[in-house]
Write a structure and sequence with these properties.
The chain has strands at about 5, 10-15, 20-25, 30-35, 40-45, 55-65, 70-80, 85, 95-100, 110-120, 125-135, 140-155. With about 160 residues, the chain is mostly beta strands.
Length: about 160
């Protein structure tokens, strides 16, 4: 039947989990620059889960740019309202780092794709936010902004 799946042990059973329930995306403004010691909201998206047991896959896409010989040390965070979504995967302060030293490359331009998972455990509307900060000695930028894509997956 269309509601069952043949498993590797040659048994048929009801399929469960993994179904995409909904996907939404938002794109930020055109070019976004992050100067030294600044934290900037790059992209935000309001999302209402259809189930309190769903898992969210949050994908960030953008073109990251650093110029000159100076160091770029950028930290990226994904928040659900004020809760750090990626904290368990990184340091106690959450987020991940992208570091370029002063000597090479002199300029760097390239795609950035960043994926984190979240379980909001609610059907209340939440706001996902992608933030970036810069602790290096050079301004870094996102060309053409960045996209945040949230996909709700059935647990």
């Amino acid at each position: 039947s269309s509601s069952t799946v043949l498993y590797g042990d040659n048994t048929w059973a009801a399929a469960g989990g993994g179904k995409v329930l909904q996907t939404k995306f938002s794109q930020s403004a055109s070019n976004i620059s992050i100067s030294t010691s600044a934290t900037v909201d790059i992209a935000t998206l309001s999302f209402t889960p259809t189930s309190s047991t769903s898992q969210m896959m949050i994908t960030i896409c953008g073109v990251f740019y650093k110029q000159n010989n100076n160091t770029a040390n950028s930290k990226f965070n994904v928040l659900r309202d004020s809760t750090q979504c990626d904290q368990e995967n990184w340091s106690s302060s959450g987020g991940s780092y992208l570091y370029y030293s002063g000597s090479t490359p002199k300029e760097h331009i390239g795609p950035l794709t960043y994926v984190v998972f979240d379980k909001p455990l609610s059907t209340t509307t939440v706001t996902y936010k992608f933030q970036a900060s810069n602790t290096g000695s050079n301004t870094v930028s996102f060309y053409s902004g960045a996209k945040i894509i949230v996909t709700e997956v059935e647990a």
